[in-house]
Design brief:
Layout lengths: L5 E3 L4 E3 L19 E2 L8 E3 L5 E3 H6 L3 E7 L6 H16 L7 E7 L7 H10 L6 E4 L3 H10 L13 E7 L6 H16 L2 H4 L1 E7 L7 H10 L7 E4 L3 H10 L14 E5 L4 E5 L5 H24 L5
Helix pairs in contact: 5-9
């Protein structure tokens, strides 16, 4: 599973609940209460997007504050969201980017992510100087990732199924009811939640819903989990995402109560009625998970096993 983003200086480190909040939750110190973590900054040689050999602690970070996330360019689920969050963060940092703060994106798939491929990927997010993208020889990258607590033998094993719903923290009717229902659905899923299923709750009121507001909302409903992400961001970005999901409305009071579930990998999506019982929501997700597991089995077997 891809690790959360890290926010640290050379003297201290905090692991944030990555992606759940703007500008970078996998965010700057205004996020929900972070947990401390021990890391070792290993100075194995890495490569930046120009192919130049650099060392993370001495040359990339130095005396600056660093915000680090972990991505791979063929990822279609969490990585684009994480990179978009960093894009927002670089805009907010302004002149501080590169001087006081450095953003660092390290690939977890160095065998495929060459400097050129990373450079092309960085271009999608208009990465500026001060946002460093790193790859390198696999043993070197793995060493750095292990020091940061971000190594996984199967980097692609973040949840394959996604449930999306829409909320705003000042909502007094549908949002609390649906959130409470999703908490029950999460319990029904048991160990499947987090390993195969992730929830995304997107605020449709980003002008008022700050990261700390969403964190408070999540705590109120006992919806705090590394794989239940509450998302906000720049209003224009949120509007574009919600429109793409077919759920945008100018009047937030009449916002969509739709629950969308699906597999980004398989390109399969469906809507579940918001009045569906938690058991039904969980069963729909289990059905999709079963299809995903079968697809993986067939892919591993290859043509001879089909």
């Amino acid at each position: 599973m891809i690790a959360p983003a890290l926010f640290f200086s050379m003297g201290a480190l905090i692991a944030t609940a990555a992606l759940a909040h703007d500008p970078a939750h996998h965010h700057a110190p205004a996020a929900a209460a972070p947990a401390s973590a021990k890391v070792v900054l290993r100075d194995a040689p890495l490569l930046d997007v120009s192919g130049k050999r650099v060392r993370l602690a001495q040359e990339v970070i130095g005396a600056r504050i660093a915000v680090v996330n972990f991505i791979y360019t063929s990822c279609t689920t969490v990585c684009p969201v994480s990179s978009a969050s960093f894009q927002q963060l670089q805009q907010r940092l302004g002149a501080r980017l590169g001087k006081e703060v450095v953003l660092v994106s390290i690939t977890v798939d160095p065998l495929r992510d060459t400097p050129q491929r990373l450079r092309e990927y960085a271009g999608r997010y208009e990465a500026r100087e001060g946002w460093v993208w790193l790859t390198g020889a696999k043993p070197d990258v793995d060493s750095v990732l292990k020091g940061l607590g971000a190594y996984s033998a199967r980097f692609e094993d973040h949840p394959a199924m996604v449930l999306i719903n829409f909320v705003f923290t000042q909502c007094g009717d549908a949002c609390p009811l649906i959130t409470a229902k999703l908490v029950q659905a999460k319990r029904e899923l048991g160990e499947v939640f987090g390993s195969e299923v992730r929830f995304l709750s997107i605020s449709i009121d980003p002008r008022h819903d700050r990261p700390q507001d969403l964190a408070k909302f999540a705590r109120k409903f006992d919806a705090v989990h590394p794989e239940w992400l509450f998302l906000t961001g720049e209003p224009a970005n949120v509007e574009a995402v919600v429109k793409k999901l077919g759920s945008w409305t100018e009047d937030i009071e009449s916002h969509s109560t739709a629950i969308i579930i699906g597999s980004p990998r398989q390109g399969k999506w469906k809507k579940v009625r918001p009045d569906a019982p938690p058991k039904v929501i969980a069963e729909e997700l289990r059905h999709l998970v079963a299809g995903e597991l079968e697809a993986r089995k067939l892919a591993q077997a290859g043509p001879a096993g089909r």
